[in-house]
Amino acid sequence: MKKSNSVLLVLGLVFFCLIGCKKDKETSEFIASGHPAWAPIMYQDGNSIVGAGPEITAMIFKELGLGVSFPYVGLWDVVQAKTRTGEVDMIVAAYKTAERETYMDYSVVYTVDPVSIFVKKGKTFPFNNWDELIGEKGVVTTGDSYGQTFDQYIKSSLSVTSVATPDEAFSLLLSGQADYFVYAYYSGKNYLNSKNLNSQIEVLSNNVSSENFYMCVSKKSSLVSYLSKINIILERYKNDGTIDRVLQKYK
Q1: Which domain holds residue 185?
Q2: Per the structure, how many domains does the chain have?
Q3: In terms of domains, do 120 and 191 share one?
Q4: Residue 49 lies in a domain
Q5: Do 147 and 215 have their domain in common?
Q6: Could you tell me the pTM of the whole model?
Q7: Which residues contact 228 (CB under 8 A, 6 or more apart)?
Q8: Residues 200 and 216 reside in one and the same domain
Q9: DSSP 3-state assignment of 69?
């Protein structure tokens, strides 16, 4: 009888552990990541992704009573691939495209991101519409979107080289191997400031586009069930100025 009770106790403990571990995995160990070079929204700092996006995400998760970490998991195309498989639960900020919507669910919009044209100092050219980029040598970063409509225009009408990092892109500008680099305005200005390149690189006056930023949840993550609550908190943060305050802190 005692042996039977002992067996039942052990089985009960094992079952309790399995349920508890599953709960912890679903509610306390979410993985959120983002672009490693898209400051001030998200950028790599050692083995972590930091910036306004992670900070806002951490605030939301705290309200929901959920745990979250923000590891650097690779370049932007790798981050997206790992979100597709569910290895990453959330991307803290991304533009909306039809292809991404096949494997991620989107939050409400929480900020807007202007996309600009960066050129070598003294190498400006008229830019009032996209057609004026035809014939120029462009550079973009692998895996990045600049808005779905402009992405399609790049593929159909422009000559661009794709590189892995902004470092490579700006190097091509400085060496004269590229005429322009398509990049988020704030990220680009942050890069120029950090590298003391404002005297060598400038931004054309008109933007390519202005894109909405969303938080995105992998369709394979249990975090999907929290998206409606995430949206409610995001709307409150927009209305009470929280998002603006966090963005200003990183800008």
Answers
A1: 113-210
A2: 2
A3: yes
A4: yes
A5: no
A6: 0.83
A7: none
A8: no
A9: strand
What is the rounded CA–CA span in Å between residue 228 and residue 202? Answer: 41
- What token pair was written down for 106? 């989107």
Task: Output the CA torsion sign for 170, 176, 177, 180.
Answer: positive
User: pLDDT (tens digit, 0 to 9) for every residue of the chain, 251 residues total?
Assistant: 444 455 444 444 444 444 444 434 444 589 999 999 999 999 999 999 999 999 999 999 999 999 999 999 999 999 999 999 999 999 999 999 999 999 999 999 999 999 999 999 999 999 999 999 999 999 999 999 999 999 999 999 999 999 999 999 999 999 999 999 999 999 999 999 999 999 999 999 999 999 999 999 999 999 999 999 999 999 999 999 999 999 999 98
Four-point Cα dihedral 68, 71, 73, 76, nearest 10: 80
Q: Assess contact for 52 and 73: CB atoms under 8 A.
A: no
Instruction: Indicate the residue type of 141.
Output: T
Beta bridge partners, 223, equal none
- Residues 201, 227 within the same domain: no
Residue 8 lies in a domain: no
Spatial separation of the C-alpha atoms in residues 165 and 36, rounded to whole Å: 9
